[in-house]
Amino acid sequence: SALTQPASVSGFPGQSITISCTGSRSDVGAFNYVSWYQQHPGRAPRLMIYDVNSRPSGVSDRFSGSKSGDTASLTISGLQAEDEADYYCSSNTGEFSWVFGGGTKLTVL
Amino acid sequence: QVQLVESGGGVVQPGRSLRLSCAASGFTFRTHGMHWVRQAPGKGLEWAAYISSDETKINYIDSVKGRFTISRDNSKDALYLQMNSLRPEDTAVYYCAKRGFCSGGTCYPWHFDSWGQGTLVTVSS
Predict the structure, then answer these.
(1) Contact between A21 and A106 (Cβ < 8 Å)
(2) Which of B52, B30, B39, B42 is nearest to B6 (CA)?
(3) Which residues in chain B are closer than 8 Å to A95, comparing Cβ atoms?
(4) Residues A52, A68: contact at Cβ < 8 Å?
(5) DSSP secondary-structure letter at B75?
(6) What is the DSSP string of chain A?
(7) CA distance B119 to B11
(8) Which of A100, B7, B40, B90 fits a disulfide with B45 by CB distance 3.0 to 4.6 angstroms?
C-alpha cells in the first residue's frame, strides 16, 4: 500500500519545513532506497533526493533527506517561493517493485 | 541530456486497448531499466510497470497484471506499454521514467532518474 505523507505543509520564505514519509518494515524500513520527487502543476516529476540522502547534480543543497526506522523525511531549508509544489516519496518494496507516497502539497506563505 | 517522449494516449472506451510509446535519447537506452508510472487526475503518482535492460525482469502493480504488457525495442531506443481491457480507473497521465543512473563505475538504480512529459489516457464511454 501507498506510503503515508501529510496532505499539506506550509512555511514562510526563509524557514525550514520537513515532510515525513511513513512506510513499514517491508519498504522504507527494509531498504535505504527512499527517493523524493518535486512536481509543479502540469509538469513531470523531478528527482530531488535518492538513496535516502543523496542529491542529484543540479539540486539545491537546501534539500536534504533522512530516515529513521520506517519513516523517511525531506527537509527544505531557506524556503523559497519556487519550492511551492507537490512532493512525493518513493521506496523500493522488494525485487523490482516500487511504491509512492500519497503526496504532500507545500505552500509557501 | 536525457530526453523521454511519450505518445499514444487518447480517449478510449472501457474494454478497449491502447498502446503507449516512449522514445528515449541522450543516454545508452539498452543498459537501463525503464518504468511506467501513472497519475490519475488530481491524484498521486503510482508505479505501474518495470522492465529490465535485457527484458529478463518484468513486474507490474497488481491492478494491471494480466491486462498491461511492458516491452522495449533496444534497437529503436523505445519503450512500450500495451494496455488491454482498459477500465475507467486506468484514466491517468502515463509517464515513462529511466531507472537510476551510473556514475564513476557505480550504479544507483533504485529511483526514477528522469521522466518524460507524460501522455494522457482517458477511459470513458
Answers:
(1) no
(2) B39
(3) 57, 59
(4) no
(5) T
(6) -PBB--SEEEE-TT--EEEEEE--TTTTTT-S--EEEEE-TTS--EEEEBTTTB--TTS-TTEEEEEETTEEEEEE-S--GGG-EEEEEEEE-STT-EEEB--EEEEE-
(7) 11
(8) A100
Q: How many Cα atoms occupy the beta-carbon half-sphere of B94 within 13 Å? A: 29
Query: Cβ contacts (< 8 Å) between A99 and chain B: which residues?
Result: 47
Q: Kindly determine whether residue A2 and residue B111, on different chains, have CB atoms separated by under 8 Å.
A: no
Q: Which residue in this structure is represented by grid cell 526514477? A: B112
Interval A40-49: pLDDT, tens: 999 999 999 9
CA distances from A102 to A38, A109, B84, B87 (A): 13, 22, 26, 22
Phi/psi-derived region of residue B64, left when phi > 0, alpha when psi is between -120 and 50, beta in every other case: alpha
What digits encode the pLDDT tens for the residues B33-74? Answer: 999 999 999 999 999 999 999 999 999 999 999 999 999 999
Cα–chain center distance at A61: 14
Question: Any CB–CB contact under 8 A between B94 and chain A?
Answer: no
